[in-house]
Amino acid sequence: SSDSTPIRATLFPGDGIGPEIADSVKQIFKAADVPIEWEEHYVGDQIDPRTQSFLTWESLESVRRNGVGLKGPMATPIGKGHRSLNLTLRKELNLYANVRPCYSLPGYKTRYDGVNLITIRENTEGEYSGLEHQVVRGVVESLKIITRQASLRVAEYAFHYAKTNGRGRVSAIHKANIMQKTDGLFLKCCREVAEKYPEIKYEEVVIDNCCMMLVKNPALFDVLVMPNLYGDIISDLCAGLIGGLGLTPSLNIGEGGIALAEAVHGSAPDIAGKNLANPTALLLSSVSMLRHLNFNDKADQIQSAILNTIAEGKYRTADLGGSSSTTDFTKAICDHL
Amino acid sequence: SSDSTPIRATLFPGDGIGPEIADSVKQIFKAADVPIEWEEHYVGDQIDPRTQSFLTWESLESVRRNGVGLKGPMATPIGKGHRSLNLTLRKELNLYANVRPCYSLPGYKTRYDGVNLITIRENTEGEYSGLEHQVVRGVVESLKIITRQASLRVAEYAFHYAKTNGRGRVSAIHKANIMQKTDGLFLKCCREVAEKYPEIKYEEVVIDNCCMMLVKNPALFDVLVMPNLYGDIISDLCAGLIGGLGLTPSLNIGEGGIALAEAVHGSAPDIAGKNLANPTALLLSSVSMLRHLNFNDKADQIQSAILNTIAEGKYRTADLGGSSSTTDFTKAICDHL
Ligand SMILES: CC(C)[C@H](C(=O)O)[C@@H](O)C(=O)O
Ligand SMILES: CC(C)[C@H](C(=O)O)[C@@H](O)C(=O)O
């Protein structure tokens, strides 16, 4: 057991299968003696005027206070007059970089072997500005906003990540041949930062070409950094290479060192409450959270237990072709600890 | 030999390997007795003020007059004050739909078997509006424009294509959960057109999810229709599934029945003039052009000869792992006719 004072972390179990996979994390953290105390918050049942969404102000305050959190899938409630839960978190907590490691799981076969990619997505602006309007009837426009500040910030994060994680190359993904001003500014900022990291190889790749090369040979890439929408697209593409969003962790980095880890898959209401869900994405996200907190030993231990359990193949959930329940899979991971 | 009066078609051999692969088309058309007379046009060496690009007004007039053309790769000259050649063609000829069939080539192995997809891309607006400006220092914006007219037009083309080509399903690709107004209008138009084609299944798929599903299981899709940038991205991704842009045809459809077929790969200056280029993409594009002209027998004949030559594997260019020259590969196709 650990001698550190426990750290408080916010936990959003989320909707659908969220509570079951969050339970899996809690059990495994307990079995591994991780010195974390969870502060649980749920999506509210009415709009909080302070957040303009179903997320309560208190839950956001909890992440701000703790500086770190873990989030299950959240189903944005149907209806009008409120903001998406994901976007509220990103904007309110200023979660400027979304980091998604994507690597082949040993023993789980897909068409691709040895994938090992990191996508780093600008998470606050670009095509997600929310600025849209009708010019005249039948003509609408959306604004893509790129700022020097946000571009430098995410580029700096990407190069720093590459350096501290022993990664040799950063590729900036863009469409500056068409969007010369916006993507052009993004590239300019990446170049500026690249100069401060002469030991990291830097390249620029047009998004269409990047997607083609990723499906042909993902080994061509290492760390990829890009504006918001390209990150949305490419991180999902990369997840597809290794089996899907049920297997990939995600960590959002905010100003002031805030970190919110999250499973990016859906809430799967069809299997909710049936003890069938695969907790891998949330578990690996919790591992990313531990690394962010510098609990690297615990992170290594838990990650190995997850990967070994999947590799052995005896306990796998249905989405991976097995027939284990969430709790049996979780128990198997605990046994590996 | 054929008894029809010859049809005139414009040919842009293009730059780099363009003239060599265009020669391949010319030889094969001659060998197959295709009743087409080529009217050749080259990219000019200075800016034509009437087109604001290196494309001459006469060459655009040629396509307008003939109604049909074939285009090799064009390297946009370096420098300022002119428009990209591809964009000039799309805008000046109002090439509103870009159709890219993408199918596995028998005998040429990639990670994917039996791919059979058609991407239909809106080709005139969206993120390609060219409207960009700096708001204040360090803050830039690009405008994405979606119009009802262009969306209905491409949706209509997609459903008509599906119907006349025996395809059962059209998927509209979008990010309307974020760009509610622009992509929302695009979807609304697709839905309107879908109602007129009750025999075609219609679905809407978010672009990030679409990319994930395409790499996991491309058989989930059939015809995909989408705004400009998504089409740019997804058509390249699809090309990657079957081996790359060297193997996929492309046909642009314009108002008034104009059709411009094109190879969408680059001009490969490194191997230009060396008799090493693979003419497959331009050849298959010329087949698309023949189908557009209702020369279906000739199209079938030539397409089979190309696919059989590749399938046999005796004559393949270096990019497909062989060691044939462009001319030997071309001769092998002629022998198959
Ligand atoms: C749910 C949606 C708003 C979100 C996004 O587009 O960012 C999701 O796709 C993601 O990647 O987290
Ligand atoms: C060269 C470039 C402007 C073009 C595009 O973005 O449309 C190309 O990628 C294509 O798909 O034809």
Summarize the entry for a quick read.
With 337 residues, chain A is α/β, with parallel strands linked by helices. The first copy, chain A, has ten helices and twelve strands. Strand 7 (139-147) of chain A pairs antiparallel with strand 7 (139-147) of chain B, so a sheet runs across the interface.
Write the layout of secondary structure elements.
Two copies of one chain form a homodimer.
Chain A: E1 7-12, H1 18-31, E2 36-40, H2 57-66, E3 68-71, H3 85-92, E4 95-103, E5 116-122, E6 132-136, E7 139-147, H4 148-164, E8 169-174, H5 182-195, E9 201-206, H6 207-216, E10 223-226, H7 228-242, E11 249-254, E12 259-263, H8 280-292, H9 296-312, H10 326-336
Parallel strand pairs in A: 1-2, 1-3, 3-12, 5-10, 8-9, 8-10
Antiparallel strand pairs in A: 4-5, 4-11, 6-7, 11-12
Helix pairs in contact in A: 1-8, 1-10, 4-5, 6-7, 8-9, 9-10
Bound molecules: 3-isopropylmalic acid (2 copies).
Question: Key features?
Answer:
homodimer; alpha/beta; two-stranded antiparallel ribbon; 10 helices; 337 residues; 10-stranded mixed beta sheet; binds 3-isopropylmalic acid; 12 strands; globular
**What is the CA-CA span between the terminal residues of chain A?**
13 Å
| Helical stretch tally of chain A | 10
Q: How would a textbook summarize the main sheet of chain A?
A: 10 strands, mixed
Q: Round the Cα radius of gyration of chain A to an integer and report it.
A: 20 Å
Q: What is the average per-residue confidence, as pLDDT of chain A, rounded to a whole number? A: 95
Q: What ions, cofactors and ligands are bound?
A: 3-isopropylmalic acid
The greatest interface here is: A-B, 54 and 54 residues
Binned strand content of chain A = 15-25%
Rough shape of chain A? globular
Strand order of the largest sheet of chain A: 2-1-3-12-11-4-5-10-8-9
Family (chains A, B): Belongs to the isocitrate and isopropylmalate dehydrogenases family.
Protein name (chains A, B): Isopropylmalate dehydrogenase-like domain-containing protein
Pfam families (chains A, B): Iso_dh
Organism (chains A, B): Carpinus fangiana
